[in-house]
Design a protein that fits this description.
The protein is mainly β and 170 residues long. It is globular. It is built from no helices and 14 strands.
Length: 170
């Protein structure tokens, strides 16, 4: 077992990118923790999920990421919070396929949408959106600095909501 720092939103990886999503309700020194399934924005390969984490430490049903966790593009998480550590066996972490991972949460789906400029391929920061679920529930706001909407917890799959971009919703 080794003591390794927990990875959080904004921590870096070996390909020069940063973790851009995390558990918004679980903070370490004011930053959301990163977990398996959260996104590492790789400058070489684009956004990719984190695929390894601590086997016995979970945040909202997902394994907590740490220094040494890997991403789907092959990057390794290289920074974390030195004041918040986990006991992990670094060599025995199993890679979790994004297709087979069991991401449990309070709801069946925990979606977050990334706005991408079709011309440049770059995320669109601070862009207005309005989201309507089939059950009538709505979300609205502006994308964050990385181009993501707020998280949408629902019992419906991604195919069952509509996103309206632009306008003066907020």
């Amino acid at each position: 077992m080794a003591q390794v720092p927990i990875a959080c939103l904004g921590d870096t990886g070996s390909h020069g990118g940063k973790i851009i999503t995390g558990a918004e309700t679980i903070m370490v020194h004011g930053r959301p923790i990163a977990r398996v399934g959260d996104i590492y924005d790789c400058p070489e390969h684009g956004p990719n999920p984190i695929i390894t984490g601590a086997k016995s430490v979970f945040g909202r049903g997902r394994q907590v990421a740490h220094i040494g966790s890997r991403t789907a593009c092959g990057a390794t998480i290289t920074s974390g919070c030195p004041n918040a550590t986990l006991d992990v066996t670094l060599l025995s972490d199993e890679i979790i396929s994004p297709q087979s991972a069991n991401f449990e949460s309070e709801c069946n789906y925990d979606e977050q949408i990334l706005a991408i400029n079709k011309t440049t391929g770059q995320p669109i920061a601070y862009y207005p959106y309005f989201i309507e679920l089939v059950n009538g529930k709505t979300y609205f706001g502006r994308t964050d600095e990385y181009g993501y909407t707020q998280r949408i917890d629902s019992l419906q799959s991604a195919e069952n909501f509509i996103v309206f971009w632009g306008g003066r919703c907020c």
